[in-house]
């Protein structure tokens, strides 16, 4: 079907007219109209004018909308690559122009923009609504299918379905035909492999992505690659390299227009690395800066409680817990917050059974969700509690688990 034929069909359906009714309005036989819609025949200018009058539309104006949509999605692709992050501006433009866009044959490209933004914002409800549509209409073996598959993989990754997400992302890579696309896919592959603890593959892809972002002068993406690379160093125990790289990232942010979340993330990751090094005073200094940017972040609050607990500043830890007790109801942080509450309140005393039970609950939840970044940390807390409690059988059991996970 050619573009003109598709537009005639779309607008005829929009006007809720049958081919026979358009026949009556134009004097063009409905069988011939059908040929126009299917692209078997192209109407001459006189016939086209009669069809336009019957449908109350100008196909020349529709060509301008085609161009507008093409410009919009090309600009959006650059926004993704250069991490300009003006996503709400795109949603406002789409909402304002939706009445014009919605009847265009390329409207799926507009829907693709919306879908990607919802995935980035982790708005699964809205993303899933559009996904069911895009599955059927995105053109195969095109840049648009590659983009769709790439962010469909991220949407699935957010559900912790690692292998399915990786498979889809590799399908997107098979379609990719230029460096900007490949850079983005490498970056996302790195995140996926990191999420399922395949760290060597994660590091390989982040290095590939970084090289292509450097070549494309996408310096914000290069910065994100370095933050991700620092995460790799943390996971493999190279805390010295992680600290140096994160400090370099924080310094670089002074010269780039980086959003608040990225700045706060780099600071929190630095603080987390100091926690793993048992340098709790240094961690608290970094957390002070992070708190200025995102004071209500759940990880920030947990890090502050832990540092004060380890420094035996129990009263300060209790104040932080009291000031943020609503976090105990949070789906992501509540169990860990409750564990820290128990730990702080018992101090150096022999751990209570409820504390050990809560530590097990946290560990098993993290294991079930495959959150490997936190798994060892909370497993070590559980092992320490069992050792202090003198429960040798349970201690041996979880030491074996730790040994197995470490292989």
Automatic annotation (TrEMBL):
Molecular-function annotations in GO: DNA binding
Pfam families: HTH_3, TPR_12
Keywords: TPR repeat
UniProt repeat feature TPR, residue ranges: 264-297
SMART domains, sorted: HTH_XRE, TPR
InterPro entries linked: Cro/C1-type_HTH (IPR001387), Lambda_DNA-bd_dom_sf (IPR010982), TPR-like_helical_dom_sf (IPR011990), TPR_rpt (IPR019734)
Domain HTH cro/C1-type: start-end pairs: 8-62
Name under which the protein is recorded: Helix-turn-helix transcriptional regulator
Organism: Dielma fastidiosa
């Amino acid at each position: 079907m050619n573009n003109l034929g598709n537009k005639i069909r779309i607008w005829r359906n929009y006007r809720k007219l049958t081919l026979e009714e358009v026949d009556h309005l134009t004097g063009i036989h409905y069988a011939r109209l059908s040929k126009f819609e299917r692209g078997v025949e192209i109407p001459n200018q006189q016939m086209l004018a009669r069809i336009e009058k019957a449908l109350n539309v100008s196909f020349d104006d529709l060509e301008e909308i085609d161009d507008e949509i093409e410009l919009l999605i090309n600009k959006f692709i650059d926004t993704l690559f250069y991490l300009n992050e003006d996503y709400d501006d795109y949603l406002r433009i789409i909402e304002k122009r939706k009445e014009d866009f919605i009847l265009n044959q390329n409207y799926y490209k507009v829907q693709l923009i919306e879908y990607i933004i919802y995935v980035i914002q982790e708005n699964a409800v809205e993303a899933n609504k559009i996904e069911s549509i895009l599955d059927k209409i995105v053109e195969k073996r095109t840049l648009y299918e590659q983009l769709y598959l790439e962010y469909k993989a991220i949407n699935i990754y957010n559900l912790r379905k690692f292998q399915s997400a990786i498979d889809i992302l590799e399908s997107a890579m098979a379609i990719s035909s230029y460096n900007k696309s490949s850079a983005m896919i490498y970056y996302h592959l790195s995140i996926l492999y990191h999420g399922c603890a395949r760290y060597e593959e994660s590091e390989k892809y982040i290095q590939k992505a970084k090289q292509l972002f450097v070549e494309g002068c996408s310096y914000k993406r290069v910065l994100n690659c370095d933050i991700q690379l620092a995460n790799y160093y943390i996971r493999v125990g190279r805390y010295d390299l992680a600290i140096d790289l994160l400090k370099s990232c924080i310094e670089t942010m002074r010269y780039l227009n980086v959003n608040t979340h990225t700045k706060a993330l780099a600071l929190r990751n630095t603080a987390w690395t100091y926690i793993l090094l048992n340098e709790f005073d240094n961690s608290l200094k970094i957390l002070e800066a992070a708190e200025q940017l995102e004071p209500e972040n759940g990880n920030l609050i947990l890090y502050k409680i832990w540092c004060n607990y380890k420094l035996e500043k129990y009263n300060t830890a209790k104040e932080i817990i009291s000031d943020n007790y609503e976090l105990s109801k949070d789906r992501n942080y509540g169990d860990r917050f409750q564990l820290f509450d128990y730990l702080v309140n018992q101090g150096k005393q022999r751990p209570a059974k409820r504390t050990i039970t809560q530590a097990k609950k946290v560990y098993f939840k993290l294991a079930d969700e495959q959150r490997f970044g936190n798994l060892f940390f909370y497993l070590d807390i559980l092992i320490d509690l069992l050792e202090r409690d003198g429960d040798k059988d349970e201690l041996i059991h979880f030491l074996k688990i730790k040994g197995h996970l470490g292989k």
